[in-house]
Amino acid sequence: MPEIVIEARTAAISPAVKVKRILPFRLRRMVGPFIFMDHAGPIIEAPSPPSALDVLPHPHIGLSTVSYLFGGQVTHRDSLGVQQIIRPGEVNWMTAGSGIAHSERFEDPSALSGGLEMIQTWVALPEKDEEASPTFNNYTPEQLPVFTDKGVWMRLIAGSAYGLRNDVKTNSPLFYLHVVLQKGATFGLPREHAERGFYIVKGSIEVAGIGYGEGKMLVFSKGEDPLIVAKENTTLMLLGGEPLGERFIWWNFVSSRKERIEQAKEDWKQGRIILPPNDNKEFIPLPEDKSKPAGSSPTPGALS
To answer: Pairing between strand 74-78 and 100-105?
Structure first.
């Protein structure tokens, strides 16, 4: 049986974009190093103008953001001067470390062709890497191993699982996979990781005779070896890994130290985190925190 079942909640990250928020959850802040997970879309009809979907430049510290699309495309720009069009099946891994700002924009009229749907996760960094220099890497689908079996298709996004590995650079032991099951297919979780879970993007499954539908995340302890049975054609995102210890999260900042988050707030207010040089001068201001302690205040407000 799962240790916990998390029901996705609705969150607004811009006036035009609402997402299903899975992590963090009040009873389960992290699964392995994963501290944040949003499911955006599918968005079929573009608002007028499409720029209403844009997420303006905003800051991060102490984490890596991972963008993975099922459909549509997004233009990423960041403090390093990177401009990258994010397309379905790619892995876009941005490590904020000591601090970075980025934007996500929908500038191409074809960006929503076929519908926009994406998963955004944040991976907390080990303490030794929290102040590392920011980096950004794009990995194409051809760089990501795919495994198929009867009724099962899966792509390894990052880490290691089921004997699969790839060259996506990570900072701690983890796994992250996109899995598609045909109706009636059975599947199990990788056994080598301490914390493991999966999110049901669409479809439905059964575990130990109990059914679960889309929008739910099931988290299992290491001793559990669940048999997942697809009740219909189903898409899952599997994730987990080794726990890193307590982390504080406030807005778009993650750290093992409350005082570091306070510093990041001031750095953003004072313009010490560089804006993307190839974007415009607009940015998302620091939310009002009303003197709440780090880790307890504004809901994370960015796609990634």
So the answer is: antiparallel
DSSP conformation letters of 191-207:
SSSSEEEEEEEESEEEE
Identity of the residue numbered 279: D
Among 189, 206, 119, CA closest to 154: 189
Per-residue pLDDT of the chain (304 residues; tens, 9 = 90+): 899 999 999 998 766 778 999 999 999 999 999 999 999 988 877 666 667 788 999 999 999 999 999 999 999 999 999 999 999 999 999 999 999 999 999 877 666 767 889 999 999 999 999 999 999 999 999 999 999 999 999 999 999 999 999 999 999 999 999 999 999 999 999 998 999 999 999 999 999 999 999 999 999 988 899 999 999 999 999 999 999 999 999 999 999 999 999 999 999 999 999 999 999 889 999 998 654 544 444 555 555 5
Of 180, 156, 188, whose CA–CA distance to 232 is shortest?
Answer: 180
> Residues 89, 117: contact at Cβ < 8 Å?
no
**Among residues 91, 148, 95, which one has the least CA distance to residue 120?**
91
* Strands, E assignment, 140-269: 146-149, 152-161, 164-165, 174-181, 186-188, 195-202, 204-207, 210-213, 216-220, 227-230, 234-241, 248-250, 253-255
pTM of the full structure: 0.93
Round to whole Å and give the CA distance between 48 and 78. 25
